[in-house]
Every structure is written in C-alpha cells, then in structure tokens.
Amino acid sequence: MMLQSVGRAWRWLALASCALATFGFDAACAQESYPSRQLTIVVGFPPGGGVDVVARLVADKLAPMLGKPVVVENRPGASGSLALRQVAASRADGHTILMNSNSTLVNQAVNANAGHDIEKELTAVLKAAVQSIILAGAPSLEAASLGDVIKLAKMKELDYGSPGTGSVPHLALEYLFSQAGVKLKHIPFPGAAQALTAAVAGHIQLAAVTTPPAVTLVQGGKIKGIMVTSERRSPALPNVATAVESGFKDFVIESWAGFFVPSATPKPVIDTLTGAMLKVLAMPDVKEKLVTLGFEPRATTSAEFNREVSAELKQWKDVAEKANIKF
User: Which of 32, 48, 254, 287 matches a 20 to 30 Å C-alpha distance to 79?
Assistant: First the structure.
C-alpha cells in the first residue's frame, strides 16, 4: 500500500514538473527527455550556400541518432542576424538550433545597429567546419590572378558581389583591397549562390563568397578562381593561389559553420547535442563529403567554441578599425 502511494507521489511530481515547463520552468524536463520532439536547425543564409550545406549534412545524420526528425529552415537576411534573433527568442530547450557563420560576428563588430549580442543571447554548441573565402571572376573578366585584378582596378572601375553587407567575404575583401590601395564597388546579394549566379552571367565582374559553393563552378570553367584566403591552397581547387602567395603576407581569413542555442539552454541538453554532433562529424563519409565540397572539418566542443567566439569578435573589431570599415 505504501509503495503504491510512493509511486503515485512520484508520478504526481513528474507531472507537476512538466506542467511547470509550460510556464518556462522546463530545465529538468528538457534534461530528462531531450529530445522530446522535432528539432529545427535555423540557417541564417539561403539554400545552396556553404553554411546551408553543412546544416543539411549534419541534420540527415542527426535525425536517426537522436530518434527525432531534424528539419532545416532557412531564414536569410542581415548577414545571419535575422536567424540569430529568431533562435535567441525561442524556447531554451535545445529543440531550436542556429546554424550560422562568423558573418554574425562581423556584423556585430562593425555595425552599431546590428541589434544582437551573440555572447549574451546565445551559447555555442559546436563548430563543425571551416572554409576559406574565394574571389572568383566572371568568364569575361580580363584578369586571372589577384595581381591582375588590382592592376585592372587601378585603371577602371570594378565591382564585386558578396553574400551581403557585413558578411565575412565582404569584410575580408574590403580589408584586402584597402591593403592593396584600391577601391571596388560592393554589391550585396542575399547569399553566395545569388552572387555566383550573377558572376557566371556576367552581371558582376567578381564575386567574393565562401569557397564550397564556388568549387564546381570553378572546376567546370564557368567562373575564374582568382584567389583563396586559406593558409594553404584548397584540395578541391589546387590551381587557385592563396592571398599569401599573391603577395599579401599573413592574410589568412576563414569562415566557419557553427551551431548555437539560446543562452538559457540547460548544460545537459547542450552536452547531449554536442556529443551527437561530434559523432556525426567523425563519420568517414561526412568528413569525405566536407572535404570534397571545399570545407576543412574542424569540430570543437562547446567550451572551446565559446572562447573562440569571444576572441574572434575582438579580432574583427580590430580589422574593421584598421581598414576604417563602418556600416
């Protein structure tokens, strides 16, 4: 009789605990039952870009591992800031996840009206992979190297497109051009795919984007690979020189693809999510796919990634100040 009473008491406590979750007191339930429903990965850029590709690759593997559906929702705009705000305002239970790039840090570093504070509003879960920036030229462009582009820019007006004002490719190229002593007209696009499409069609002369979405276009001869910002040449594009090889000493800039959750998300939930994602990124077929697409797999834990985010935010502020870049 006493055992039945104890059992009823425990059931009542469990129900009461989960009832509190509806009013925001959901930490215990989230930890015990996570995940309890579909997970949504919100991507700050349009379909087809590098960040989107990584999100979908991870989502496909994560779903069977966690036993719940994982969907990808694209929310492009403001260099990833719209997606950031959406996730930051969501319930902090690990079921809504942000997949973004360091364009969000750039935007915060150079834009006083960015409208977000990534260090306060979000917690980093895991950095999945890094990618270089590529400067690609339209087929008709009279330049085949970075040196050619700089010479041409000193003779006539040139333009270049990027995945948006305040994106990593935008700031990286503004910094590089400032070092070269030239000024090119910047044309922002909603994402990398749109900028590349415009370059292929000859509507713009150059496109600065993350490398992965440009790989097949360069390989197929539809656009010219001018330069990449990685320390070494990309294995996927071995004929495209680095900025360092092109005469810009120590000019190495990477764009990462990383996962975040709202800052109030319970640590056990973050640990579960990080552990599952690390297993996904350790899969040989996932690693091979990332390399083929132009990424460098480089998974880091939540604690490591949070430290990197804080340090990189300061670095981008320094870059913007040196290049006198303000939006």
Answer: 287
